[in-house]
């Protein structure tokens, strides 16, 4: 397993990390993802550790805390061998203050996550979304307190826009608060919006990408083909409306190229899609998920080899879309404003 620095920090993370959204299966969305229990989680973690995958990502809202609880139980006796990443800010329950990034909620939710995870520190704590109703200085001063208390070691964000992240970094620099070193972001061959602004920002400011849903919300599993119905067991039947829309013809165009490269390399469609991501700028780690051992082992096959430059170029071309303004306009000034990819 290759290890990479998490953004501009001194912390090294594996190129592949394991996302535990499949742990628990509580609620319609997460039940469609998976219903992994503690014994199954232990087995999957065993496989991960054998392969050098040492970072495990969760969130307080995943199965209403069950994902954190199962992960904590499954990691008993080996916490010192792993990195644990979790997230908060989305509404947890109906209590008025159990949402957002206020000082009240962040302190409360970190303590609750530590209890469920059965640990006294979180290696990477990320804000799951931007809270426009809480001053950025309040958010960052609270995270600073939690770092100083030893409850959090590194901080990051998820689902922020460029100005959300840059404003936060500016405030951190102004007051000496810890800088965000990670951006847990949606990025895939069929979702390349990250490249327009967040990737250049990450390069400039030293923020590493922790990629979620690298298989395009389950569309790049190798089971979806032109002229064929979505497989009966696909989670897309229940979760498509939650995720990013993808035009059918665009998806099939990308899958056609993935299929061709699969023939050339002997690799699977998911392995190729993951390997493409691992060659992109700013990517520190890619989160893989799995309902079972077979899926996990297949995803682990994305490392230890690389697509050729010619294969990458073909995938780039097949997945290219015209950016929104001002990014399409900036493409005409590439001499002084080059694209990062």
How are the SSEs ordered, and which strands pair?
Layout: E1 3-5, E2 12-14, E3 16-19, H1 28-33, H2 38-51, E4 55-57, H3 66-74, E5 83-88, H4 103-117, E6 122-127, H5 136-148, E7 152-158, H6 162-175, E8 182-186, H7 198-205, E9 208-212, H8 236-239, H9 248-265, H10 269-278, E10 283-288, H11 293-300, H12 309-319, H13 327-330
Parallel strand pairs: 3-4, 3-10, 4-5, 5-6, 6-7, 7-8, 8-9, 9-10
Antiparallel strand pairs: 1-2
InterPro entries: AKR (IPR020471), AKR_Detox_Biosynth (IPR050523), NAD(P)_OxRdtase_dom_sf (IPR036812), NADP_OxRdtase_dom (IPR023210)
Domain NADP-dependent oxidoreductase: 16-319
Organism: Trinickia dabaoshanensis
Average of per-residue pLDDT values: 94
* CATH architecture tag: Alpha-Beta Barrel
CATH homology-level superfamily: NADP-dependent oxidoreductase domain
Shape: globular
Order of helices and strands: EEEHHEHEHEHEHEHEHHHEHHH
In which order are the strands of the major sheet placed?
3-4-5-6-7-8-9-10
Q: What percent of residues are in strands?
A: 5-15%
Count every beta strand, where a strand is a DSSP E run of 2 or more residues: 10
Low-confidence stretches: none
């Amino acid at each position: 397993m290759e290890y990479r620095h998490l953004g501009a920090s001194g912390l090294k993370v594996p190129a592949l990390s394991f996302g535990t959204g499949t742990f628990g299966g509580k609620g319609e969305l997460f039940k469609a993802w998976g219903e992994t229990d503690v014994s199954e989680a232990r087995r999957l973690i065993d496989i991960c550790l054998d392969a050098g995958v040492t970072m495990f990502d969760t969130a307080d809202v995943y199965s209403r805390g069950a994902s954190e609880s199962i992960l904590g139980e499954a990691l008993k006796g080996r916490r010192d061998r792993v990195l644990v990443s979790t997230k908060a800010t989305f509404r947890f329950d109906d209590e008025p203050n159990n949402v957002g990034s206020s000082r009240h909620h962040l302190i409360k939710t970190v303590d609750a996550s530590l209890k469920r995870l059965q640990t006294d520190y979180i290696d990477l704590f990320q804000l799951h979304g931007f809270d426009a109703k809480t001053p950025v200085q309040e958010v960052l001063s609270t995270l600073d307190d939690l770092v100083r208390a030893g409850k959090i070691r590194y901080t990051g964000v998820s689902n922020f826009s460029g100005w959300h992240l840059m404003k936060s970094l500016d405030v951190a620099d102004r007051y000496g608060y810890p800088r965000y070193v990670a951006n847990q972001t949606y990025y895939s061959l069929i979702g390349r919006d990250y490249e327009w602004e967040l990737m250049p920002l990450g390069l400039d400011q030293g923020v590493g990408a922790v990629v979620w849903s690298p298989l395009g919300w389950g569309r790049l599993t190798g089971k979806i083909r032109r002229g064929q119905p979505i497989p009966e067991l696909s989670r897309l039947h229940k979760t498509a409306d939650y995720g990013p829309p993808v035009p059918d013809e665009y998806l099939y165009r990308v899958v056609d190229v993935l299929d061709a490269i699969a023939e050339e390399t002997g690799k699977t469609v998911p392995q190729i899609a993951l390997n493409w991501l691992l060659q992109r700028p700013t990517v520190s780690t890619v989160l893989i998920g799995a309902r079972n051992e077979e899926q996990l082992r297949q995803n682990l096959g994305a490392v230890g080899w690389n697509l050729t430059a010619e294969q990458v170029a073909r995938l780039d071309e097949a997945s290219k879309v015209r950016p929104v303004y001002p990014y399409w306009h900036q493409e005409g000034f590439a001499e002084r404003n080059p694209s990062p990819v």
